[in-house]
Each structure stands twice: as C-alpha cells, then as structure tokens.
Amino acid sequence: MLKKAVYVLCVLWAGSAHAAEWTGHLSVESCVFPHSPLASDGHTFYPSLVLQPEFYHAWSNDKERLIFTPFVRWERFDPERRHVDIRELAYVRIGEGHEWRVGIRQVFWGVTESQHLVDIINQTDLVENIDGEEKLGQPMINLALLQDWGTVNLFVLPGFRERTFPGREGRLRTPLVVDTNQAEFDSRRGRNHIDLAIRVEKTMGGFDLGLSHFYGTGREPRLEPRRDNTGRPVLIPHYFLIHQTGLDIQQTTGRWLFKLEAIHRWERTVFGEDFFAATGGFEYTLGNLVGSGIDLGFLSEYLYDDRRDTAPFQDDVMVGLRLAFNDAQSAEALFGVIVDRKSGAQFFNLEGSRRLKGRWKLVVEGRAFSEIPQDDPSAGFRKDDYLQIGLSRYF
After folding, report:
1. Taking the complete model, does pTM exceed 0.85, yes or no?
2. Residue 343, SS3?
3. What order of strands is seen across the sheet that includes strand 222-227?
4. Is residue 83 part of a domain?
5. Does 355 fall in a domain?
6. Coil/strand/helix, residue 259
7. I want to staple 250 with a disulfide (CB 3.0 to 4.6 A). Which of 3, 89, 163, 208 is the partner?
8. Does a structural domain hold residue 181?
9. Residue numbers of the chain with a pLDDT score lower than 70
10. Domain span including residue 146
11. How many domains is the chain partitioned into structurally?
12. What share of the chain is helix, strand, coil (3-state, %, to 5)?
C-alpha cells in the first residue's frame, strides 16, 4: 500500500512538475554593538548565517497549492538564536467563494508602522528582531469565505508556539535571563489548548476595514521572577488565556494615508484583567521630489496603552521619514524615533536596503536607545545600540 501511494504521488508530481519552483535566499549578517553590555555574558560582535528557501507548487489550474518555507539561523555566541523553524508548510485549495488553507502558516494583520497591536495569530520570534515583525510558523486550519461585500476568515489554531527569548550570551534581553524551560500556562491543556479566531475584512470607498476577535493562549507572556534549577534568579514566562477584539482601519486619500489599530484584551488572571491600547497616525508622501524621482514620506503616530507601568508604549509619539528612490536597485530607507511623552525616553530605528548586481541585496538595520529611565520596561536595552549589516544572495 505504501509503495502504491508513493508511486501515485510521483506520477502526479511528474504530471505537473512545471508548476513547482524553489526560490529563497542565503544571508551573511554582522551585528555590532558599540557599547559593553549590562550583563557580563554579552558580546559586542555577533556574526550569523541565515538560510530561508521557499518552495511553491501549484496544480489543478492553480486551484491547489503547496507552500514550504523553512528557516535556519546559525549564530556564533547565543545558542537561543541558533534555531530552525518552519515558517510555512501549507496546502491551499481555492473553491467557489471560499479558500481552505491548512498546515503551518504566517498571517499578518495590521496597518500602523510603529507597532502591530491587532497582529495576534503568529507568535513573535523575538530572537530575530525586537520590532515584533518576525514571526514563528503557526499550525492552523483557515477557511476564507469570499463574499461580494468582503471576506470572513475563520481560524482553528492547534499547537501553541512559545515566544523565543535571547539567551545568557545574547543582547537586547532583559537583565534576568528568561528561562523558557519553566514556562507556565493558564490553560490546563498547556501548549495543547486549541485557539480560535475570526476576522472580517471589507473595503469601502477609500477605507480598508478589519475587525477581529481571538480567544486562546495569549502570545505575549507575563515574565515572573523565579529561580532556575541551579538557584540563579531568572524570569519565567506565564501565558494567560485571553479574549482580544481588534479593529484596524486604513484610509487612502490623495497623498495622505491614515492608519488606526485598536484592541481591547481581557486576560484570565486571578482577578481578571482587561486593558485598551491603540496606535494611530498618518503618512504623507511627496512624489518625485523636485524632479528627482524620489518619493519622500512623512510619518507620525501616537501610541497609547492604559496598562501604564507594564507596557512598552503607554503615551508615546513616533515620527519618521521614508525614502523610496524608485531606481533599478529598488533602494529604500526608513528612519523613525519613538519618544515617551512622560519620561523623554527615545527609541531610534533605521532600516535600509538596496539590490546589488545580479541576485545580491544589501540590508542595513540600526537601533539606538537614549534617556531610558531605570524603571522603564526597556531599561535593559539602554546599552544595546547596534548596527546590523546583511548581504543576501537570492536564488
């Protein structure tokens, strides 16, 4: 029976092999920290290698698809950042007015630049980047109902993914190491709790609207001080069951782009806790600046969170500039700073990329922290300014 099944699969594969393709990239990255770390175990230079191939195969007149995207990083010092993940391994079937997507996938929700409050399906891969945009693959069954008035997405999410954290020799970490081996869960099923989500999307005039609700194990753990098995003080991640309702709105009108994300979350703690958070703002773009062909965008957003003492952005303002050179090398750059209106703490961000000859691409990323008070949630990063340069070869 097994031999017969393998034979049938080979025949089907051969009959539609023209639709299968491998792409992806191999990257060499160097991350330099100009300041000595707060923790004595840290380093100032972190070289690493990244491999991310992508496999795509379609058949049945493109109505059935298979997507596979593994991810591998090797780093010199931090074992926690030496990891392998399946970003996507999914089967997609397109029907009349609906789509089935089954397997491991990445789903992105959100419209704002500084943070993505509504983006809750995938767990954050924190060892990759502190901006929260790098995600782990999430097992799911997703049914998309395509209606004339919009789209309804239904999600069943088995298999919880824990957040990754830098190890003892890593940088951009909390003063105490996070011991993921002692992770605790509010649900009696632990990592096996089945989460549920729904999202409704609609385009109306110049507005793109998204309304979502999630029930399950929250992706953002609460870090509680404990001790590890050697008696050293550590932080233990505790994952609570939550309900989260999210709203995202984007309006395009001429050169203006207005954005809003807002959530209300209830966590099943001992007493039951809930909070409201929102991020909103605009982007204004000047096209073909003084005849140069360059687009210059001005960004500004306000970040609010009523958790106050425990949230990273409670009452902050972000301003930034975006440059798109619109050249053959697809060069672009983004610079921004988030300022805490109460403490004056500043978080600077720089991102840039440019294609080189052939299939090469250069990527530059920088972060800097200034005026961070001792009691700020990001106080552990105040010596972690860094510049990262990556060179990628696409295939």
Report:
1. yes
2. coil
3. 184-185, 233-239, 222-227
4. yes
5. no
6. strand
7. 208
8. yes
9. 1-19, 270-272
10. 19-33+50-310
11. 1
12. 10, 55, 35
